[in-house]
Amino acid sequence: MKYGKGTKFWCKNLSNIGDCTIGSNCTIHSHVWIGDRVKVGDRCRIQAFTFIPTGVRIGNDVFLGPRVTFTNDKHPPSPEWLITTVADGVSIGAGAVILPGISIGKNAKIGAGAVVTKNVPEGETWIGNPAKVRG
Prior knowledge:
Structural class: mainly beta
Number of helices: 0
Order of helices and strands: EEEEEEEEEEEEEEEEEEEE
CATH topology: UDP N-Acetylglucosamine Acyltransferase, domain 1
Distance between the termini: 41 Å
Strand order of the largest sheet: 2-5-8-11-14-17-19-20
CATH class: Mainly Beta
Number of domains: 1
Shape: globular
CATH superfamily: Hexapeptide repeat proteins
């Protein structure tokens, strides 16, 4: 694991942090699972019980609420994992599930408990199961 200056881990021994890259000034809470080859940008906040498997790329200034779950395999067990991308400034509410291969655009918001099955455009707010644009 490589992480930048100012990054803080709460109860690091209660988390599973793989061979990943985490930027500067991030906060990683306890009971977080971050897989190998995951990239997390600067100034991100990852709340407790979040699951981030191999294949996820997270931009700068991203907030992940508690129990956010990313998936990387549409038909487990498959030999290939899909890449999921979270752009800068995204906020994802507690308990949201992000399916594999999804792109979430800059400054988008995902509501608590949402199940994201499609790409989310920049600046939009998505809620529900399956998640849809609000309004």
